[in-house]
Amino acid sequence: MTRSTLRIAFLFPLLCAGVLCAALPAGPGVAAPGAVTPAMREKVIIDTDIGDDIDDAFALAAALNDQHLDILGVAAAWGDTGLRVRQLQRLLAIAGRADVPVTQGPATPNTTPYTQKRWAEGQPVPAAPVPSSVDFILDQARRYPGQVTLISLAPPSTLGALIDRDPAGFAKLKRVVMMGGSVYAGYDDTGYGPLKGPTPEYNIYSDIGSARKLFASGVPLVVMPLDSTRLKLDEVKRDLLFAAGTPMTDALALMYHQWRHLNGWGQITPTLFDLVPVAYVLDPRLCPTTPLRLVVGDKGETTPAPGPANAQVCLKEDKEGILDLLMTGLLARQ
């Protein structure tokens, strides 16, 4: 059985057995076997700081290419959120998903280079005011109580603003699935040899106050820390993607090359941190979780502590399974 078949079996309970199901035609108003109906799709909002590191772009491409997600909106977070709106609008148009609302979170100071600025500026400034992310997310959470997954790929500034505005409305979310933190492994760990230990992780230490509010909010929280997100997109896979010549892979190639030359870190091989939360929502088996109580320290540490768990934490991911999900989804569009 292939991984794709396993994912379908996991996501959609079988209504009939084996060959009988294949042999019988679908009746009027009945979805064909394997078809994705609106009721089966996971309602999500993606909060992203696309434009600095390159991983957000790949994570969004994976989400936009998967029919199992009902993407209610994409929210620009952290730093120059106005320019991030333009980048998101351009990417959604290329994906054929200009119908997905783009919203703007609170702008903040940001010292990280906006490496894909030139690509973002290829999209005109919006002619009409862009909706507020805080208003939009609260509206969707109230409209679909207990049904909306918020995928957080950015410093949690927008989430902190949501909690400040309306903690009861925030509590109507089904869950938050986030990239953030460092429990036992840090940036210097390679996945080989003894662990060097945790380090403050960018999303958390960028907004410690909002992170503390989130971990204390009581909303179901699924965390993908550095322990499970140091996922490398090697040269062989990059070449396969960039040679595909689809509108999305061409866009990713352009953004990647801008990131490569402007990131200031000398990096060539991107680490796809933010792909892991998206992959988890699509198939939780790709990143099994452990219940932990995490406390956010003064320097942005996320330290396990005694007491009731406040998060489900993925400490070990299926690297090849997650990369297969990305590659298969993007290359199937050729």
From TrEMBL:
Domain of life: Bacteria
The organism of origin for this protein: Nitrospirillum amazonense
InterPro entries per the UniProt record, alphabetical: Inosine/uridine_hydrolase_dom, IUNH, Ribo_hydro-like
Inosine/uridine-preferring nucleoside hydrolase domain boundaries: 44-321
GO molecular function: purine nucleosidase activity
Keyword Protein biosynthesis annotated: no
Leader sequence residues: 1-22
Lyase found in the keyword field: no
The name this protein goes by in its record: Inosine-uridine nucleoside N-ribohydrolase
Record keywords, A-Z: Glycosidase, Hydrolase, Signal
Entry GO terms, CC: cytosol
SUPFAM superfamilies in alphabetical order: Nucleoside hydrolase
BP GO terms, sorted: purine nucleoside catabolic process
Residue ranges the record marks as coiled coil: none
